[in-house]
From TrEMBL:
InterPro entries: RNA_pol_sigma-70-like, RNA_pol_sigma-70_dom, RNA_pol_sigma70_r2, RNA_pol_sigma70_r4_t2, RNA_pol_sigma_r2, RNA_pol_sigma_r3/r4-like, WH-like_DNA-bd_sf. Keywords: Sigma factor, Transcription, Transcription regulation. Residues 116-165 form the RNA polymerase sigma factor 70 region 4 type domain. This is RNA polymerase sigma factor. PANTHER family: RNA POLYMERASE ECF-TYPE SIGMA FACTO, RNA POLYMERASE SIGMA-70 FACTOR ECF SUBFAMILY.
Length: 180
């Protein structure tokens, strides 16, 4: 078994064995990142392949720190670039038409699994989902999100608030169905 450092060093030398080891080590986690940012498995696979090519192409620029964090940033940026490319071809949703709801005080989230929660997040409108993932899952600030997406910082905050409200509404509906 090779250490992460050995695998990265082997990849920097262009050795196929180490590239395969890197792929095996991170493919599941990085595919999960891609799926969070897309509407379909097909689109996620495209981003996944493109991002892995970028990782191997730019691995020489990795100079230390968390390798997984460095790699994750490539995958997230690739997903965002894909979002920008496809955005001009997609119908824009008027998010102001989505009703805001006041959530119940009961702890609905504790009643569902992580997998179920990911499925619920996937139901968010695309803009909400993107900001929610960047802020809540990846840990980016609103300023960083605004720069990445080319939107105002206030828009990022607003989209996050609406995403949370939308999720609470979905969770309340989910909770009601479970009780019936």
């Amino acid at each position: 078994m090779y250490s992460e450092q050995e695998i990265v060093a082997g990849c920097k030398q262009g050795k196929a064995l180490f590239q395969e080891k890197l792929y095996q080590l991170y493919s599941r986690r990085m595919m999960a990142v891609c799926i969070r940012y897309t509407k379909s498995r097909f689109e996620a696979e495209d981003i996944f392949q493109e991002a892995f090519v970028k990782v191997f192409k730019h691995i020489h620029s990795y100079s230390g720190g968390s390798f997984e964090g460095w790699m994750r940033r490539i995958f997230v940026n690739t997903a965002i670039n894909q979002y920008h490319k496809s955005r001009k071809y997609q119908e824009q949703v008027d998010y102001s038409t989505i009703e805001e709801s006041s959530p119940s005080e009961e702890d609905i989230v504790s009643d569902i699994s992580g997998k179920e929660l990911l499925l619920l997040i996937d139901q968010l409108p695309e803009g909400y989902k993107l900001v929610f993932n960047l802020y809540e899952v990846e840990g980016y600030t609103h300023r960083e999100i605004s720069e990445m997406l080319g939107i105002a910082e206030g828009t990022s905050k607003s989209q996050l608030a609406k995403a949370k409200s939308y999720l609470k509404k979905i969770l309340l509906t989910y909770s009601m169905k479970e009780k019936c």
